[in-house]
Specification:
Layout lengths: L2 E2 L5 E2 L4 H15 L2 H11 L5 E7 L2 E7 L9 H10 L3
Antiparallel strand pairs: 1-2, 3-4
Length: about 90
C-alpha cells in the first residue's frame, strides 16, 4: 500500500496499519486460491439464527445451529420436536 500526492508522487508514509496490511497481502499472495478461500472462511462470523418470544412474564430465546453432516432436514427436526408436545 502506498500514498500519493496530488501529482501522483509516491509519499513515504508508513504506519503500523500499512505494515500489517502489507504483511497480510504477502501471506495471502503465497497461498493457493483454495487456501485463501479456507483462510477467509475461518475468519467469517456466521451469526446463528435466534428467535425470541415473550409469553406472559417469561422470555424464551431459541438459538439454532446446524450440523452440515446431518441427514435430517429442518422440517424433520421441527416435526420431531413438536410431536413430543402434541
Amino acid at each position: 500500500m502506498f500514498y500519493t500526492d496530488d501529482n501522483d508522487n509516491i509519499l513515504n508514509i508508513r504506519t503500523e496499519l500499512t505494515d500489517a496490511f502489507d504483511k497480510l497481502y504477502d501471506e495471502l499472495d503465497k497461498m493457493t486460491p483454495e487456501e485463501r478461500i479456507a483462510w477467509y472462511a475461518r475468519g467469517m462470523y456466521i451469526k446463528p439464527l435466534k428467535y425470541t418470544q415473550k409469553i406472559d412474564n417469561t422470555t424464551y430465546i431459541i438459538r439454532t445451529t446446524f450440523n452440515e453432516n446431518s441427514t435430517s432436514t429442518i422440517y424433520d427436526t421441527v416435526e420431531r420436536i413438536t410431536s413430543k408436545y402434541i
